[in-house]
Amino acid sequence: MDQNTSMAAIEIKEKTIEKRGTVFLNNITLSIKETENWVFLGANGSGKTLLGKLIADESGEESGYVSFEKEKEILDYEREQDDTDILNYPDPGRSASEFILQAVNNEPLLSILAEKFHFAELLSRGLKYLSSGEMRKVIIAEELMSNPRLLILDEPYDGLDVQSRKDLTSLLTDLNSEGIQIVLLLNRFSEIPLFASHIGYMQNKKLILKGKSQEILQSDELERLHYFHEELPESLPEALVGKDDRYKGEILVNMNHIRVAYGDKVVLDGLNWQLKRGEHWKILGPNGVGKSTMLSLISGDNPQAYANDLTLFGMKRGSGETVWDIKKHIGLLSSSFQTSYRVKTSVLMTVISGFYDSVGVYSNYSDLEEKKAMEWLKLVRLDQKARNPLHSLSFGEQRMVLIIRAMVKHPPLLILDEPCQGLDEINRYTVLKLIDIIALQSDTTLLFVSHHSEDMVESISRELHLKFNHQNIEIMTKEI
Predict the structure, then answer these.
(1) In three state form, how does the secondary structure of 40-100 look?
(2) What's domain 251-479's architecture?
(3) pLDDT digits 0-9 by tens, 346-355
(4) Is pLDDT of 183 > 50?
């Protein structure tokens, strides 16, 4: 059927969503034909996610929807149902296969999807033990079990390594060729698939551009809208006077023959690595290879640190130090931390909590701490939202706030696990440039994890590669 004459599968006319005086979507008019596959782009907070939900609502029960929010809801449920304290052994919760088959018990279809998307080895594992990228695969598979006519995916590529992104694009292309209509909500122009026939661009809750892909991508209007013309300041807010009890030694982290296993599952084995002050590292490796486990050992959040030869900031783990003795030297941002930051608080209080290594602020803070927090918020152009509730911000804006929370105390070590995940082009450029300034103008040492080769920080000159090698993990280091 010709694309121009085919029936409209979804028709939205002059739709505005408003609650208590706040406009969330403004005068949306959109027609999506049955033969069209759409990609919606736009900055964080522009309204893309709500537009995706509106499209899902208009399509009825024939659509599947995958988002960061759904992932968070699933993991929240797993935490609520955790019976570890009662059982006196770790409660694995629902396995990936149990979750995928919960609504539609079709094991043959699951086997086909697991082979096509390379996640058969995940099926027996508990959901809460999956990485963010692994979880994304499982949620997509669960949605596909109901054979949806329309599949809507909100930032499906974030958290996936290079091979998994290729696998996902291949899977979506196959699904589209089999008759499933695809709608993607993306931040990265580089992730627009070849099968995308139409593009929409969101700004300030409005759908301000829409049309055929090539016409939109080549338009002068899109270039003007998306052009990043602001430069970051040349210097950072200074550290607080009187708070300088940070570790002064040269060696920040020393790992000898590190081994981490959960039952029969060995995550890390034989890791020898040393991090010196001023040596900025990028950590690379596919999903499930052990990157997040390695970082949890350094941040003090993994109890298996006590069973290993691990020295952090001059303190041998298990020598009487507390987790807070470790954390005061570290700034941390990861997807799991963002998921767990559930306290109801303002943007400003979130940043101030970085001085105390706490989730929320539970003691009197100083005027100077508030001043410094505002300086950081201004740096990333979120100072006008300082008094807003953190969870009223878009996912990407929340990520920006949590990044500067990690930076606010000028820690000796800054751990950034996929810091650009969920960020649009402009905010991603801002974050990467800000990280580069941190490396150049402070004495903070960086550990940076990213699956995206385009997420480059010029000041990072070393790489640690974790690779699967049959049943073992191969560890390679190099200078770049």
Answers:
(1) EEECCCCCHHHHHHHHHHHHHHHEEEECHHHHHHHHHHHHHCCCHHHHCCCCCCCEHHHHH
(2) 3-Layer(aba) Sandwich (3.40)
(3) 999 999 999 9
(4) yes
